[in-house]
Design brief:
484 residues; mainly alpha; 21 helices; 0% strand; globular
Length: 484
């Protein structure tokens, strides 16, 4: 008799009508999939594409437009590049992400890898990179090289496994709370600047009510498109200014145009000095990956049913894809710095969907948005953007973190992590709390006793030192001037 694990996805699949609820159908789908690692995975043979996949795809596309724009604009400000360059490079990055990487890797070659998105925490460091004499291409190549090293040695999954429950919960709570208050503050500032002060209060108030109702009826996966649409309509009706400004078109595709001396970035190709200048920034970028990837994987674990282990995100493979995407994207001329795509993974987990189905839709949406141009304007409009990030990323992160902190021991680790994150930043908070937690100085002392000395001190200690040195070199430790 053939066991369940030996049957194919098609053999085990059932119609949605055979289940009492839609949730039961989606849970069943997650438990019968088993993807080919670095093989050919095909829709409807190895996985399905459902209506629920549209939501994370929309959220990912909105997030991509916003984050890449912020990243490229930060570079452009430092290197005196025009707004036209920013629009052109963002359009280019949408096509690189959608056509070249999202569908190829996450949908077909290895559906256990999350999409390669944008490394948001690196945006504030871009001015320091420029002052240090860094070059965007040199930075991208070194991030790809260091990331591949971490992925090949399976350092990412090892660090994830060494992070205790309390530290994980504290990290998610901090990221969720800070992001949530930040988005509300930015929406309020925008409304005040536009002379429509009441828009912020009304939009956030209605968003809270709609989100609470969706949570009550267990339809939170609808929060992003529904809340964003309502926010946009309310803001427009209340007099907020909006207009389409990015016409349809295609960007330049010649890498040498982008890395020319009087075209594109107008910087030419990097020299050895440029590579030396960006070494600490590249190390820090890759060091920041682990807590970021950890949060996305944990969110899947909390949302998926028991038996869905085969569809969980593989941290090491995701790091490998992000590294390859970073290297190739930078060489082609893009200004993105890659990381795990949070605005895709978190909504996908809420919707109880695996990675590949939504990845196909995300790739299509990114290409369409890049070519048409106008959808990019809508995604970047403040009410739509802020509400999408609030209900799709930061509020779910906060909820998940609170769900993980279930006892006094976990709350102690979580509190220490939150304190350390607030003191410096999340990468420092995660590294410090993980070291203290594994040594048994905080949190569950019984767990610490089961760890080897490598797991207690050597690996967490080395990670902590790497983080401290990298942060110190680039001036990110409070009160300590950086060398670069």
């Amino acid at each position: 008799m053939v066991g369940k694990n030996e049957k194919s996805y098609v053999e085990q699949r059932k119609k949605a009508s055979e289940f009492r609820t839609r949730a039961e159908y989606l849970d069943h789908e997650l438990t019968i999939m088993k993807f080919r690692r670095w093989g050919i995975n095909l829709p409807f043979r190895d996985y399905s594409i459902e209506i629920e996949d549209v939501v994370p795809a929309l959220a990912a596309t909105i997030g991509k437009v916003v984050m890449v724009t912020a990243m490229v604009a930060a570079f452009a400000d430092q290197y005196a590049l025009s707004p036209a360059f920013v629009a052109e490079n963002v359009r280019y990055e949408m096509l690189i992400a959608g056509a070249l990487f999202v569908m190829l890797f996450s949908a077909f070659l290895n559906p256990n890898t999350n999409l390669a998105g944008t490394h948001g925490p690196m945006i504030p460091l871009i001015p320091i990179v420029a002052v240090a004499g860094g070059h965007p291409l040199a930075l991208g190549i070194l991030i790809g090289l260091f990331g591949l090293t971490l992925a090949i040695t399976k350092g990412g999954s090892k660090l994830m496994n060494l992070t205790g429950i309390g530290v994980r919960g504290g990290l998610l709570i901090y990221l969720g709370a800070v992001g949530l208050t930040g988005q509300i503050g930015k929406l309020g500032k925008w409304a005040t600047g536009g002379g429509v002060d009441a828009v912020s209060f009304v939009v956030i108030g209605v968003t809270v009510l709609v989100y609470a109702y969706l949570a009550r009826i267990q339809k939170r996966w609808l929060a992003i498109p529904l809340c964003s649409a309502i926010a946009g309509i309310l803001a427009f009706m209340m007099g907020a200014d909006f207009s389409f400004s990015t016409p349809p078109g295609l960007p330049h595709f010649d890498p040498m145009w982008w890395w020319g001396t009087d075209t594109g970035w107008k910087m030419g190709l990097p020299n050895m000095g440029h590579f030396i200048a960006v070494i600490p920034f590249a190390i820090l970028a890759v060091a920041m990956w682990s807590p970021d990837y950890l949060g996305h994987r944990v969110f899947q674990e909390l949302s998926y049913p028991e038996g869905a282990e085969n569809v969980l995100m593989d941290v090491d493979d995701t790091m490998m894809v992000a590294s390859v995407r970073q290297t190739i994207g930078s060489c082609l001329g893009g200004g993105n710095i890659a990381s795990s795509w949070g605005t895709y993974m978190i909504p996908a987990a809420i919707a109880k969907r695996p990675i590949p189905g939504g990845a196909i839709l995300t790739g299509i949406f990114c290409v369409v948005a890049g070519i048409l141009g106008y959808p990019m304007d809508l995604a970047m409009w403040e009410p739509v953007l802020r509400v999408a990030l609030i209900v799709g990323v930061f509020l779910p992160l906060l909820e998940a973190g609170m769900q993980m902190v279930s006892n006094h021991k976990d709350s102690q680790s979580a509190g220490t992590c939150i304190f350390a994150c607030a003191f410096v930043n999340p990468v420092f908070g995660w590294a410090a709390a993980m070291l203290l937690d594994n040594l048994g100085l905080i949190g569950d002392t019984k767990r610490a006793k089961t760890l080897t000395w490598n797991e207690k001190l050597v690996i967490p200690g080395a990670m902590f030192v790497v983080c401290i040195v990298s942060l110190g070199l680039v001036g990110q430790l409070p009160g300590i001037p950086g060398i670069f």
